[in-house]
């Protein structure tokens, strides 16, 4: 569904990583690991098509062309209400969903009562939940999550995990980076480790050697 | 593409007109310009038609810079730009949506500037009105096509306003000349050539910069920091 | 160890020498103009300045298109070198033009289409250089400048046409420059243009070489620990 072909990226003149080739199939959850500055976020942005890789290419072979990207930025317009935000993204993505449908999505992320409040009055966690609602609305084929837990409370994190499993069941291809290695290693089918600008590990998370995980845990 | 264009247009209009101070700052700046120029009139005399037209277009040009700054700043608060880039429709929809939004806002502002010019600078409307209206629309279209393209240029810069003005104003020179030329005729300055030549020029400008906007916008509006 | 840039230096040197030879042509070969006298000699410097400035801007346009298509940093550096040279030369062309105008037409400035176009272009490309001076990432700056480089060059014919419509009554100016040149004058001015061409090519090349070196220095500084 998503294919990286010998991708390399330079930041200024510094090489972030190189020779990253792998494919991501439908109905899978992949955990992307690496220390600070290893290029996890950059790789996700390249996969989303937001950043042009210095060399190589990211190819997307899905049907509907829907890519979801959930990162630190919430994409929320503060002066619009929660419902208006969702309505705008529905229109921008050319989706057909009724107002009731949008409200029920807001209900799923626990924002039903605040649907008509301006997003500028929301806390960071609530804004991120509104962002999550955008992803739910989109039902993307490829879902890229860059440390999605940031600012979410326990309930929202649990909701996010449920949605990831649901997305996998639907046949989506999920790639995420995470702080909580121990928990997400159980969720994922596959783990990729970026180390010293290379793909150091590609396989089931259980095969990750304990030092790697320990290193991850302290770096993350 | 059309649906996304309309979505961007509607969102931008809501955000500027209903949810913020909107055009107030822009209008005040334009009115102040007209007022300051009115000080150059002596007692009992009026600015000549061409000067008055130039003042009107100067106000419009400043107004346009502020409008496109405001429109492109909307996407910067929470990086919504990235969200727009992820939409399946071609990204030119954003350019088009914002150009149309800017055009509507500019026309609204000009509805205030025109009477202000007439009143403060002592002008009267008695030239060829219909071709003048056509040129006004063509000129505004060109200004917005170029403004929407270059508005994306200053993304993430702190000195956006001044940067946009110094880049945009000289490029707009042909349009401003066309606007001023026809404005002078409307305010009663006779011109043997009539509005025809200006009409052609403004149309050519529009054609070139609408095409340039469509072709070049995708290079400027990217996910890069 | 980088090669010493011999070729641009040779070009510069031959430009200087041939310009020196041109002085002979200017003062002893070409006849003095009847009405303007000695001041007309400034024309032999003024014209090459203006032409090569325009050519620099054309080079910026070509480099910008190449950068947008290939994203090669070297095209971006070529644009930078050409734009700097172009602004310098057009500035000098404006100054020499003013001196000449003062003597022959009695005014420092007249809104002739050619003058107006040169002035507007000077503004546009000065803005372009300001944009180059901003603190942006290399890739982003390259893209933004390339887009502006294309847009700016598209604007040049429009500015010229608009200035022409704007001041449609100036046969004297056109006649004085275009027509009545004697064959000796033509030969002299052609020699000056060619000689200045060498000088120009050397200048652009040398500047590009400097920018290349700087880029390499930055690359080395960033990659070495």
Number of contiguous helices of chain B: 9
CATH superfamily of chain A: P-loop containing nucleotide triphosphate hydrolases
Q: Could you state the oligomeric state of the chains shown?
A: heterotrimer
Low-confidence stretches of chain B: none
Please describe the biggest sheet of chain B, giving its number of strands, its sense, and whether it closes into a barrel.
Answer: none
Largest interface: B-C, 31 and 32 residues
* CATH structural class of chain A: Alpha Beta
Percent of residues of chain B in beta strands?
under 5%
Physical arrangement of strands within the biggest beta sheet of chain A: 5-6-7-3-8-9
Number of helices of chain A: 7
* Main sheet makeup of chain A: 6 strands, mixed
Euclidean distance between termini CA atoms of chain B: 25 Å
Can you offer a commentary on this structure?
The complex is a heterotrimer of chains A (220), B (225) and C (225). By secondary structure, chain A is α/β, with parallel strands linked by helices. Chain A has one domain (2-219): P-loop containing nucleotide triphosphate hydrolases (Rossmann fold), CATH 3.40.50. Helices cover 36% and strands 27% of the residues of chain A. Chain A is built from seven helices and nine strands. Chain A has helices at 40-48, 82-92, 99-108, 124-138, 154-170, 181-187, 210-219, and strands at residues 2-11, 14-24, 28-34, 55-60, 67-70, 142-146, 173-177, 190-195, 198-203. A six-stranded mixed beta sheet of chain A has the order 5-6-7-3-8-9, with helices on both faces. Chain A has a three-stranded antiparallel beta sheet with strand order 2-1-4, with helices on one face. Chain B is an all-alpha fold. The model of chain B has no long low-confidence stretch (mean pLDDT 89). In chain B, α2 runs parallel beside α5 (92-120), α3 crosses α7 and α6 runs parallel beside α9 (196-220). The radius of gyration of chain B is 18 Å and the shape is globular. Chain B has one domain (2-221). Chain C has 225 residues and is mostly helical. The chains are: A alpha/beta (220), B mainly alpha (225), C mainly alpha (225). Chain B binds chain C through residues 146, 149-150, 153, 157, 163, 166-167, 169-171, 173-174, 177-178, 181, 193, 197-198, 201, 204-205, 208-209, 212, 216, 219-220, 222, 224-225, and chain C through 68, 120-121, 123-124, 126-128, 130-131, 134, 137, 139-140, 143-144, 146-148, 150-152, 154-155, 158-159, 161-163, 165-166, 168.
């Amino acid at each position: 569904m998503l294919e990286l072909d010998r991708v390399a990226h330079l930041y200024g003149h510094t090489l972030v990583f190189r020779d990253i080739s792998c494919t991501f199939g439908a109905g899978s959850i992949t955990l992307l690991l690496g220390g600070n500055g290893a290029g996890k976020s950059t790789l996700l942005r390249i996969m989303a098509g937001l950043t042009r890789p210095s060399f190589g290419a990211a190819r997307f072979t899905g049907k509907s062309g829907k890519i979801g990207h959930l990162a630190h930025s919430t994409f929320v317009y503060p002066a619009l209400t929660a419902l208006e935000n969702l309505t705008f993204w529905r229109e921008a993505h050319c989706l057909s969903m009724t107002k009731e449908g949008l409200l029920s999505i807001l209900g799923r992320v626990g924002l039903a009562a605040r649907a008509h409040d301006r997003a500028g009055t929301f806390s960071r966690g609530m804004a991120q939940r509104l962002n999550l609602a955008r992803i739910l609305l989109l039902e993307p084929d490829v879902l890229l999550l860059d440390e999605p837990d940031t600012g979410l409370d326990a309930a929202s994190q649990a909701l996010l995990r449920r949605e990831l499993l649901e997305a996998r069941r639907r046949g989506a291809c999920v790639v995420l980076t995470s702080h909580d290695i121990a928990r997400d290693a159980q969720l994922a089918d596959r783990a990729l480790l970026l180390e010293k600008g290379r793909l150091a590990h590609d396989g089931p998370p259980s095969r990750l050697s304990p030092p790697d995980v320990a290193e991850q845990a302290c770096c993350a | 593409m059309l649906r996304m264009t309309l979505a961007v247009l509607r969102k931008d209009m809501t955000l500027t007109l209903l949810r913020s101070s909107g055009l107030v700052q822009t209008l005040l700046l334009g009115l102040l310009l007209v007022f300051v120029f009115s000080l150059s009139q002596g007692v009992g005399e009026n600015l000549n038609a061409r000067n008055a037209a130039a003042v009107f277009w100067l106000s419009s040009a400043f107004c346009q810079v502020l409008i496109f700054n405001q429109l492109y700043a909307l996407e910067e608060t929470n990086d919504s730009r990235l969200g727009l880039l992820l939409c399946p429709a071609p990204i030119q929809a954003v350019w088009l949506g914002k150009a149309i939004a800017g055009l509507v806002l500019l026309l609204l502002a000009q509805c205030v500037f025109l009477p202000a010019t007439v009143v403060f600078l002592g002008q009267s409307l008695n030239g060829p009105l219909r071709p003048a209206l056509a040129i006004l629309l063509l000129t505004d279209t060109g200004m917005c096509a170029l403004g929407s393209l270059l508005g994306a240029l200053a993304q993430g810069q702190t000195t956006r306003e001044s940067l946009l003005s110094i880049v945009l104003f000289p490029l707009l020179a042909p349009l401003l000349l066309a606007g001023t030329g026809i404005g002078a005729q409307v305010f009663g300055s006779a011109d043997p050539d009539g509005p025809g030549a200006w009409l052609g020029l403004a149309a050519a400008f529009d054609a070139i910069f609408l095409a340039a906007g469509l072709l070049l916008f995708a290079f400027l509006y990217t996910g890069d920091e | 160890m980088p090669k010493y840039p011999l070729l641009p230096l040779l070009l510069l040197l031959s430009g200087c020498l041939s310009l020196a030879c041109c002085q002979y042509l200017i003062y002893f070969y070409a006849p003095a103009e009847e009405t303007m006298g000695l001041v007309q000699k400034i024309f032999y410097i003024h014209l090459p300045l203006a032409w090569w400035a325009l050519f620099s801007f054309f080079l910026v346009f070509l480099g910008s298109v190449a950068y947008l298509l290939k994203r090669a940093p070297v095209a971006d550096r070529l644009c930078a070198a050409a734009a700097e040279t172009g602004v310098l030369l057009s500035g000098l062309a404006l100054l020499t033009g003013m001196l000449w105008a003062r003597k022959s037409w009695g005014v420092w400035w007249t809104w002739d289409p050619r003058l107006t176009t040169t002035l507007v272009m000077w503004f546009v490309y000065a803005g372009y250089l300001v944009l180059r001076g901003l603190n942006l990432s290399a890739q982003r700056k390259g893209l933004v400048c390339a887009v502006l480089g294309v847009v700016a060059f598209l604007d040049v014919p429009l500015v010229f046409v608009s200035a022409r419509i704007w001041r449609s009554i100036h046969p004297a100016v056109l006649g004085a420059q275009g027509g009545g040149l004697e064959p000796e004058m033509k030969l002299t001015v052609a020699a000056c243009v060619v000689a200045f061409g060498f000088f120009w090519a050397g200048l652009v090349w040398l500047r590009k070489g400097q920018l290349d070196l700087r880029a390499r220095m930055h690359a080395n500084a960033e990659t070495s620990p």
